[in-house]
Specification:
Elements: E1 9-10, H1 13-16, E2 25-28, H2 38-45, E3 52-55, H3 67-71, E4 75-80, H4 87-94, E5 99-102, H5 105-117, E6 122-124, E7 138-140, E8 144-148, E9 153-164, E10 169-170, H6 179-185, E11 186-197, E12 216-219
Parallel strand pairs: 1-12, 2-3, 2-9, 3-4, 4-5, 9-11, 11-12
Antiparallel strand pairs: 6-8, 7-8, 9-10
Helix pairs in contact: 5-6
């Protein structure tokens, strides 16, 4: 691994992910294409790794983002909330090449949060009486509720707008999405930032995620920041 000096700062995505291996579970931040860790995804796509379990709201979209790993046949399991706009995932699902677990979006975020907080399980009415509840314990409180387990990961790859050398992060608007929760739920969190700043540059009251949850951070580059559906005012 190549670090810039001591601490958590790495030179680039390849160095920050040098111990990433086949068969691992990785959480990837982003909602659609908003706030996705572009550099880390590209780094994993260039590695000879396979049989990955990917936990992300959606597994890429319209040929972009995590679709790069799909096209490389690197993903074995996908845990996500949304599969629309992704013909690559559709094709591999129907061919039995990728096993997809669909999780209601609120349950998805809460399962990740539970992992970060050490909560062993929780009950939710979401999904009761549907396929979501198949094979799970159901208990009646004021209404039937499904027992859900936390989602953990070996690695979390996320992107923030600004981060300091300790890993304190500030996200821009909706690009925050699931990323802070994922950082808390993984053994190793790798963050790419558009702006890497010295300690103290981010006011304490503006820190969205404390650096204690970040193990590695690097300055990203060449961001596309793709827009899924562009709408312009007439």
């Amino acid at each position: 691994m190549t670090r810039h000096g001591r601490g958590k700062v790495f030179a680039n995505a390849i160095d920050a992910l040098t111990d990433f291996e086949s068969g691992m579970t990785v959480m990837s931040g982003g909602f659609g294409l908003c706030g996705i860790p572009e550099n880390s995804i590209d780094a994993i796509a260039a590695m000879p790794v396979k049989d990955l379990t990917v936990i992300s709201n959606n597994i890429g979209n319209s040929g972009r983002g995590l679709v790069k790993l799909l096209r490389n046949r690197q993903i074995k399991n996908a845990v996500c909330s949304y599969v629309g706009g992704n013909p690559d995932l559709e094709q591999q699902m129907l061919a039995g090449e990728v096993h997809v677990t669909l999780v209601p979006q609120g349950t998805f975020s809460e399962r990740i949060r539970a992992a970060g907080l050490g909560i062993r399980a929780f009950y939710t009415p979401t999904g009761a009486g549907t396929m979501v509840a198949e094979g799970k314990e159901v208990r009646v409180f004021d209404k039937p509720c499904v027992l859900e387990l936390p989602l953990h990961a070996d690695f979390a790859i996320i992107k923030a707008q600004r981060g300091d050398v300790f890993g304190n992060l500030w996200f821009k608007e909706a690009a925050r999405n699931f990323s802070p929760l994922m950082a808390m739920a993984a053994k190793v969190t790798v963050v790419e930032v558009e702006e890497l700043v010295p300690m103290g540059e981010i006011p304490a009251e503006d820190v969205h995620l404390p650096g204690i949850f970040v193990q590695r951070i690097y300055q990203g580059k060449n961001y596309r920041n793709d827009i899924e559906i562009l709408k312009e005012a007439p």
